[in-house]
Amino acid sequence: MSAAASSSETDKTQIQIQFITKQPQYSVPDIPYAVPSAISIQELNSLINQLIKESDVQNEIQKSIEFDFLAADEFIRTTLGEHISVHGLSTETILSVEYVERLPAPHPFDCLLHDDWVSAVHSTDKWILSGCYDNTLHLWTAKGKHLMTIPGHTGAVKAVSWVSSQDDITTFVSASRDQTLLLWEWNTNENTVECVQTCKG
């Protein structure tokens, strides 16, 4: 048998699947469906939307919905047959295919630009402290306003953390690849920073 003929036979193979979801508003009848192994994600979407429409007796869902599909806890990104082959799934029994509504990727509220890679971040409800590979620290408001750039390390900053806050004095610490840990005091009223302790090791 030629490779082309073998591929054609595979495309015609029927697989018994059962749709499941954790979103009850999109549930469909709990029965097996026979689908071709070559069915694509787009075709699965069309099928599940058709089944939802048939099950929606109160006509509450007015438009088509984009879904992602999982089999064996892995998202299906190829044809169903290819997914089954890659993950070694059995076609001798009914295959459970979970579907979840596809949501758009989140958009950032703001972008806090740095001059180099950011290697450490720690935040409170008011402030953001970041450390960079260019050896600097940065202080920001929680709304993204840059307050100051703080030099002091001679190596990339690898960790930062707020320590305490009392009146106008806020204490934080930074650790660097220069083998130092620096303790800082920030006067939030005057917006000035002083290194008050250096730990080297």
Automatic annotation (TrEMBL):
<feature type="domain" description="NLE">
    <location>
        <begin position="15"/>
        <end position="84"/>
    </location>
</feature>
<dbReference type="InterPro" id="IPR015943">
    <property type="entry name" value="WD40/YVTN_repeat-like_dom_sf"/>
</dbReference>
<keyword id="KW-0677">Repeat</keyword>
<dbReference type="Pfam" id="PF00400">
    <property type="entry name" value="WD40"/>
</dbReference>
<feature type="repeat" description="WD">
    <location>
        <begin position="150"/>
        <end position="194"/>
    </location>
</feature>
<keyword id="KW-0853">WD repeat</keyword>
<dbReference type="Pfam" id="PF08154">
    <property type="entry name" value="NLE"/>
</dbReference>
<dbReference type="InterPro" id="IPR036322">
    <property type="entry name" value="WD40_repeat_dom_sf"/>
</dbReference>
<dbReference type="InterPro" id="IPR001680">
    <property type="entry name" value="WD40_rpt"/>
</dbReference>
<dbReference type="InterPro" id="IPR012972">
    <property type="entry name" value="NLE"/>
</dbReference>
<keyword id="KW-0539">Nucleus</keyword>
<dbReference type="GO" id="GO:0005634">
    <property type="term" value="C:nucleus"/>
</dbReference>
<protein>
    <submittedName>
        <fullName>Ribosome biogenesis protein wdr12-like protein</fullName>
    </submittedName>
</protein>
